[in-house]
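Sequence, please.
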């Protein structure tokens, strides 16, 4: 039967999050009801809330949930009531990329996760006063005390790890880590550069520190974040407000350039500087997402030295194996996400948004 729960609703593009009672639809056979314990706040949530993407509003966002399974549909396998779960993106499970272990490139990824607001069959998951709301965000819409979650968004995790400490694994952290581990795959002695020391960038720094890379360079404009990057494994830092990043990287690497770069800022000018800082046969991974339609001019001849520019979604991770591995690293203290997290009561979601926007908190996590 349907469930009434408290959710943070965005009424229209640019409006604040407001707490409201909503009704979850009857769970489908492939869905579970999850009681949220924590949910990370991500820039993607803010981008959609601002009206920057065509997600149907009013709606309920949230895509870094973590909680406890309360009930499961008849077709759900792998989790049971009482299990602790991290919630991540969903996918169809049937297309070529899903079968190939790359569900982040699912043929129906955009409507299922980011802009559809409904299940694949077109039915809604959340309503208020009899009127449908945008929901099914990343298969979860986890800015709510309870969420109706698609089974492919559910990842069972070790119940011994506090859920508030691992909620960000669902999107931002796995994106930064996956950029390094799944795409760059640094070789022994290589140089890795991370452009932007936010949650995704610092996750990439921590990931690089667990590889054979011997030079890890963090680039940002905020001194406190550069200091934190150094504490998390960066061997060098570059203040982009004081020096040109490409020139600084070239100097640090003895003229060679970077073997791998993770671009997290979404700034096309920074992306161009990153390409210029690549070594021959180096790879730049584009993680930061500027507005739709953004373009960047590149020197074509400069690419002929074997440089590669690769786009990335959600770390190109297979969540059922990748996220539990990250949870184990958090548990062992080898992936110290606590250094990034600031916690807020769910009712203070707008304060969390302000603190994130103004740079006071790197990764806000809401507690229910």
């Amino acid at each position: 039967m349907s469930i009434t729960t408290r959710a943070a609703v965005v009424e229209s593009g640019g409006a604040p999050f407001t707490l409201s009672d909503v009704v979850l639809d009857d769970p489908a056979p492939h869905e579970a009801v999850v009681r949220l314990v924590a949910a990370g706040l991500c820039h993607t949530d803010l981008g959609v809330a601002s009206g920057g993407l065509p997600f149907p509003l009013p709606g309920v966002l949230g895509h870094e949930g973590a909680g406890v399974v309360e009930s499961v549909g008849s077709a759900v396998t792998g989790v049971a009531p009482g299990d602790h779960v991290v919630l991540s993106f969903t996918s169809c499970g049937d297309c070529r990329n899903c079968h190939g272990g790359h569900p982040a490139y699912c043929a129906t990824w955009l409507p299922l996760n980011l802009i559809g607001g409904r299940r694949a069959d077109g039915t809604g998951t959340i309503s208020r006063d009899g009127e449908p709301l945008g929901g099914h965000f990343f298969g979860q819409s986890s800015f709510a005390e309870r969420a109706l979650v698609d089974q492919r968004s559910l990842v069972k995790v070790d119940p011994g790890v506090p859920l508030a400490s691992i909620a960000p694994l669902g999107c931002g952290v796995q994106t930064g880590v996956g950029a390094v581990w799944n795409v760059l795959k640094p070789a022994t002695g290589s140089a890795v550069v991370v452009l932007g020391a936010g949650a995704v960038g610092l996750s990439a720094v921590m990931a690089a520190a667990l590889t054979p890379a011997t030079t890890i360079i963090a680039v940002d404009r905020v001194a406190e974040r550069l200091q934190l990057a150094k504490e998390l494994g960066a061997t060098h830092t570059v203040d982009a407000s004081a020096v040109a990043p490409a020139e600084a990287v070239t100097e640090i690497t003895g003229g060679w350039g970077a073997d791998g770069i993770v671009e997290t800022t979404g700034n096309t000018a920074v992306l161009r500087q990153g390409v210029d800082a690549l070594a021959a046969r180096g790879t730049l991974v584009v993680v930061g997402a500027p507005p739709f339609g953004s373009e960047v001019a590149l020197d074509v001849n400069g690419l002929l030295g074997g440089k590669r520019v690769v786009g990335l979604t959600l770390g190109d991770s297979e969540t059922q194996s990748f996220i539990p591995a990250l949870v184990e690293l958090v548990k062992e203290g080898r992936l110290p996400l606590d250094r990034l997290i600031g916690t807020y009561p769910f009712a203070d979601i707008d304060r969390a948004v302000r603190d994130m926007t103004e740079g006071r908190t790197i990764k806000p996590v809401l507690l229910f």
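The mean pLDDT is 96.
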